[in-house]
Description:
The chain is of the alpha/beta class. The protein is 36% helix and 27% strand. The protein is built from three helices and five strands, in the order ββαβαβαβ. The protein has a five-stranded mixed beta sheet with strand order 1-2-3-4-5, covered by helices on one side. α3 links the parallel β4 (71-74) and β5 (94-95). α1 packs parallel to α2. The longest helix is centred in the middle third of the chain and has 16 residues, at 51-66. The chain is globular.
Amino acid sequence: MHIRGDQARLVVGGRLDVRSAADARTVLHSAVDDGAGDLVLDLSELDSWDATGLGVIMGAHRRAGRCGRRLVLRGVPPQMQRLLVATRLHRILAIEGGIGVESLPRV
């Protein structure tokens, strides 16, 4: 997993899973705490995530809300969009451009 960017925009790549969760959490929390306004999390380079990775995203979302900020997901890959829809988290998280639920392939 790799994360690059600043307090306004971060690009996450690789795998966001149990092995990378602690490092990702640290970077995301620092970005939330040190910035202002929306924090855009670009997931277009993300290969996969597991429940732990999804928990990291949700934790950053909650922390951003407590800091008066908003976490915005950008470039969410289709397989991860399906997971967000299945867990109904697409209704809670800010997703740039939204998720066209009707256009997602059924699994």
